[in-house]
Records
---
Amino acid sequence: TAACAAKLFGTRWSSPDKEMMTALWRRVSSTWQMHAFGSPEDILKGFGRIKFDIPRQLSLGISALMRADYKCFLYWNVCGQELKVGFGALTVPLSVVLQASESSREAAVNAETFANLRDEFRGAAESLIKEQSLGIVVALSSYHRPASNGDEYVLERQMALIGKKELQPIIQGAVCFVSRQPGVSEAQVLRVDQKARGVDSSDTTLQSLTDIFFVSQMPVRLSRKVLEPIFREYFACLSRPHAT
């Protein structure tokens, strides 16, 4: 996958992964389908061009992207209740999806190609919450940003949380807990402008869900595999009795 890029060696993959990739390459390099590729790195670059093509990915729909790489985790006795949290991994910037971009390149994608993506994100999260009895949805994005130093790209991460209205204090606490990690930016609170969107003020979807808590910068190392135990630690804190 794109995680096996040379610049991520030692961070996202290691020597055993490299040995396996070399062994696989020896097996497949003799087939006619692989003659167009000179090395495993060529395949990774081609895959990355598709995987991180923002308009192409967004054309699939936010709901499909949220479910393409998705895992659900169950946490016990969180403030006295069972809590299910869904983690969806996307390969488009959440700043584009949530229309919270400071990048002119990303803003152009929003303005020219897609509209109301924030509403679509909220609808996708609501569907997951209803279908799987979730309390919280965590969206993680990893994406390519063109580098300014001559390299082809820089891999970056972002995160967004949304959940049931009654869990807003827990979500806010989770965001603060994660923000203790080095390199994590402060969260922005993003709202759906009902008047601008022409949304009925009695819409139960808007009333039942929290605002969107968006973290625009996170270290690449904070993948779902690394981040989930941090959430687990936070939820465990909420299950412990506090001294009075």
Note: The radius of gyration is 20 Å.
---
Amino acid sequence: MKHGYIVDESEERLDEVLAVWFCPPYSYTGEEAAEIQCHGGSLAAKKCLELLLDRGARLAEPGEFTKRAFLSGRIDLSQAEAVLGIIKAKSDEALRAAARSLSGEISREVEIVYDALIALSAEVEVALDFPEEDVPPKTDLEILQDTASIASKLEALISRCQVGFALREGVRVAIAGRPNVGKSSLLNALSSRERAIVTPIPGTTRDVIEEVIVHKGLPIRLADMAGLRKPQDELEAIGVDRAKATIDGADILVIVLDASAPLTDDDREIAANTGNAPRIVALNKVDLPLAVAEGDVRALFPNSPICSTSALLGFGIEGLKDAIFNIISKDNSFEAGLNASARELFELQCAARTIAEAQEAIKAGLGQDLAASALATAGACLQRLLGKSYDDALLEAIFSRFCVGK
């Protein structure tokens, strides 16, 4: 580290600085690098940068430093994406999950699965390709046992990454129900501010209104929407279509029912058409005389948690947040969560599916060659996750999401 001054063309001092030279591989990128530490004022930093650009330097592209760190082998692709997870973290839990991934925890767990997968795949393929060799081939039962062990490790890793993904991106929660059951009031109560317009007129909400809250470290992306019923006009029809699209993309549905009114055909239709995602029933307006029995609600929504709420009084709101939290956390402590991107989760799930296909091929008696092919495909998924195989388009898609300077 050296102490000195930044001077302009006329040798006039602009700032007092420290300069640090990093020899490979000890810089962030693993390459030779120099760092100039000037004072924090924006004008001083701007002048220093302008002088460097005038002398032939250029601004880094978004994510270029992290991309160079990956290309030089200092970090793998999973660790590179964890850098973005640290930048995007909205809670202490999300930050810790990203830090675990940056330290290489996802990579180490994937490597364990990958090594076992490749060893099994190679053993099966050698026996198929060189039957004359004096090496006893794996029996179908042994292959099933080995793939079951690998699949178990992979599913445990997927579960940890799903928790980390929710911490990173937030869980998408759609607040659905027929008109005038208090959906917008519930959004306002959950977000502790007047985010949506509330009136006694049915059909007030036409567009999707989104709000992000954090509960126990979990970012929750709430979406209020038009009431679900037969549209009364073209504008409401557009709102209902957008509501249905939001429901289709949600991780969790909060179905709002009016506890002060009997169940309607619209309520029953919503119950029949919203079973793809986990559901929580918010039995709202319990501050008014009750007109619906909880048993009738349970019959419509079996196995769904029921939360009694009053959006007007704020009653039951924390319990509703807890119900959302519990669906995501399940038995997994957030302390075990690993920051994972959508790409990483996709590759892990791809590997899990193809291992299951290998098991089905063996069980169906279709031959070990089909199983070997599926195992090789699973290995390729994990290779892509770690960046052992990649193309320029993949790197562009990942690093273009970074900001300049990272």
Note: The mean pLDDT is 88.
---
Amino acid sequence: MDLLLGLIETLSKSPQNLSVAERSSAQSQFTELTEAGFKLDWLKPNLKEVSLERKKALPDGSSVQELEDGLISWN
């Protein structure tokens, strides 16, 4: 139950204010809870928003788009 409460607390924060570790942890916790049988459809919109932010940002603060643009310029 603590895992669910922690996930709710994490997802209630602004996605921009979450660290990469918190974003990754939220995804893992969501998966673990749904595999255990919890019905968390009501949390999916929040998790999707966090996941999108996670995909957009890299640990060094750059964006995926910047990385892709750099790779394209190499070709």
Note: The radius of gyration is 15 Å.
---
Amino acid sequence: MTVSLSGCMGLIQARESLEGMRGEPVDKPYADKIAMTHTFQTESIFDIIGEYSNSTSFSIDDSVTRIEIYFKVTISASDTLACLEQAPTRYVRPTVTTASGAVLWAEDVCEDVSPTTYDFTPEDFDTLGDFTLEVQARGFGETTLNQFQDDFIIIINVYHECRQYPQEPPCDE
């Protein structure tokens, strides 16, 4: 009995030939964006005493090369009205916690914050997994003349790097 292996050997040669034509992979960076913004609008006394609260989660894996946090706060007339430390009436308190519950970044402000960025590398956080952005804030915003409106902007860019092979969909899809 004779067994022919020429068919199998031909498949191996064809696969190697196709892989040779495919081209080299390239490491490509891409970013995921997580944003939380809020503009206060005061329509009743309950809006003044009520607190804005929101949270969102985002995933961190071993492809993450850095995390960038953009933070900006506008509190109307904060340059003339000092913060009342005993009874803060207007404030923004964002916190980013890691999957283990450790605080990666936190702020507690009651006045304007010019656009600021904070950078974190994998050495700055203790674990991978789901991170959480949580914000508590209180502010004022009149809607008649739109001259006094407190607001904040938080944008988190999570930068990844992945190996991109030709003829494959991009990493960020």
Note: The chain has one domain: 25-164.
